[in-house]
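Notes from the 1:1 (GR / supervisor)

We went over the backlog. Supervisor wanted to see one worked example end to end before approving the batch request, so GR pasted a single chain during the call. The sequence is below; no edits were made to it. Supervisor asked that the structure be written out right there so they could see what the output format looks like.
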Amino acid sequence: MTNAAATSFNNTVNITGALTQTNAATGTTTFANTVSVGSADLKGVAYALNNSFASGGTTTIANTGTLSKNATGNISSTGAFNATGGNLVIADGASPTLSTGAGAGNILISGSTDGTAGGAVESLTANAGTGSVTFTGNLGGGSSLSNFTLSGGSISLGTIGAASAGVTGNVLVNSTGVVSVGAATIGGYLDMLAGGAVSQSGAWNIGGNLWVKTSSGDITLNNFQNTLGGTVSLIAPLSNGTGGGGNAVLLWANLIKVGKVRPSDATTTDVGITAARVTIKAPSGSAIQADGNQGLITADEPQGTTPALTIIADGVIGNPATASPTSEGLWVKTKGLVKVVTDALSGGTIMLFGENAFQPKYEFSGDPTKRSVKYNGVEATNAQLTGALDAAYLDIRNQTTEIRESGFAKENASKVLRNGVVTSAGPGQPAIDDSTGQTRMEDCEGGLSGDSLSCL
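Structure output shown during the call:
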């Protein structure tokens, strides 16, 4: 195709080679029926894809206006799919899928992505296989989508929504790489599975529950304007006993209610907040829900100078007057160091509970001038005291082992034989005594009776 004004392809387009516009069209190009091409390189003002659009290779649509997709059919591209310059609009009531297949085809939408105002709701699914997914513009900023589902390798989203929700329903993300999301306003839940680090470049406002899990990398959600309307579960790799190993979770939000259920499938296995090192920050202690009905915080950084769990919030956390201190409070599982900010006495008591086998350590436990951290109703173990006791115990154990092994050596039969005397073949006085040295035979007056000698 060369220069064209408004152009419509009302019949099926089916070619094995490339579909190319050598010069930009000056009007809307409409594909009213199915399209199947070897590859596509389109340049124009606006495009309307009113049926399925399939490309066997790379697809590039460079438009200065709007790329609209109606309710019939999906967009698939075996190679990369790039829509640059203009905006993507999902037609009224449509829920199309944009897919590059199972391979490494990338998806790039550089303009904004919107639904259609009024009428039925719209949703969008983007699947890049092992390729990357990038939406650099605002998603749902002009007209919101109902749901948004995307999968691929690394995933980068510019912004979702503005003053109102960009997605009124749910957002599901399945990535084998890193995930980065800008400012986001989501009416429902956000469910995110990643293979790398998860980060944000703007505040998140999530009306429903937040669930994020990564198999590698940190989860860093540290915007001070994060607003969470539901529970939160954040899961990153543990240290498995290696100091500095595993990954970290950092959460800063207006309200922290640790989750017990994954929102997308209602499962209860991968839930709570789990990582080698966990930091939670809230505007006040009361903003960290701790009545015993929340999920578990697990932090397995070994005891040392690096905190396993850091809590940043002024004010009482939990109920210091509770009659059930072993089941009411902030549910934690850690043997490592707990750090609180502020640690001043005025900060208020922090109530933790959990298994007795997992005793968290607190540097200022027992210090009347410092903030109180209680575990199962009593002051948490003092980290410095625990270290001193461990060192003393180790010294005693080593000395005991040395004495025991020394005794065994003294009663070693072959060694004593080389020294000349064995006084007993069975239980009895050792052949070597610490105070008298080698045991000697006692003197006696002998007598002969028949063929035998004996002491009289």
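Supervisor's comment: The chain is about 10% helix and 35% strand.
Batch request approved.
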